[in-house]
Amino acid sequence: LCDRLHNMRTLEHLPEAKRRRKAKETKEIYAPLANRLGLHPIKSELEDLCFKYLRPNLYQRMKESLEKTKSERDEFIKNTTDLILKTMEEAGVSASIKGRAKHLYSIWQKMEKQNLSFEEVHDLLGFRILVSTVRACYETLGIMHANWKPVPGRFKDYIAMPKPNLYQSLHTTVIGPDGERIEIKIRTPDMNKVAE
Q: In b/e form, how buried is each residue of 89-115, taking b as 16+ CB within 10 angstroms?
């Protein structure tokens, strides 16, 4: 996987037909393998590099759009993380929170699945909340939904019904601060260990 990642990082030195073939092979074999092994940073980078070579024009347009708003997004992530932490503390629930922007390939997948334009994809930001117990997971979900309006049809309970690979987490999307859609995943440290 590391060798393939290195190859993908230096793909621009190959002829276009070879680049496309390697990118397609990586997308179909190596990225899913990295995912299966829980190597998510490698999986994400492989997917983005495949996207870059398989859909170069779209990749470039999306990348430029995201770069224009990077500093605003980073500030929003920090402010929202602080706000979620404060909300959790006020409710008496101890938590650690991590925010991130979604990577390009996952945004494109959402566009494809839901037939959306780039401008129509709103939940570009994700937050992971780690709490100590399963009970605290559900309590946190209630806190999030009490403070921000949940988006209908965007809730999944993988704690009560884990995925076949034993992944457990609560997923919800809410209309967060400033009317932005944010995706929230709530889990315990043990669940996070399995997910990672």
A: eeeebebebebebbbbbbbbebbeeee
Distance from chain centroid for Cα 140: 19
Phi, psi of 19 (to 5 degrees): -60, -45
Is 155 within 8 Å of 171 (Cβ atoms)? yes
Query: Does this model's pTM top 0.85?
Result: no
Q: Which amino acid is at 110?
A: K
Nearest C-alpha neighbor of 10 from the set 66, 54, 58, 49: 49
Q: How far apart are CA 143 and CA 120, in angstroms?
A: 27
Pairing of strands 149-157, 125-130: unpaired
Tokens of 90: 């006020």
Residues in the chain: 196
Residue 166 Cα distances to 28, 69, 161, angstroms: 23, 36, 9
Q: Are 75 and 83 in contact (CB under 8 A)?
A: no
71-to-14, 78, 125 alpha-carbon distances in Å: 34, 11, 13
Compute the distance between CA of residue 192 and CA of residue 166 in angstroms, rounded to an integer: 11
pLDDT digits (tens, 9 = 90+) for 79-94: 999 999 999 999 999 9
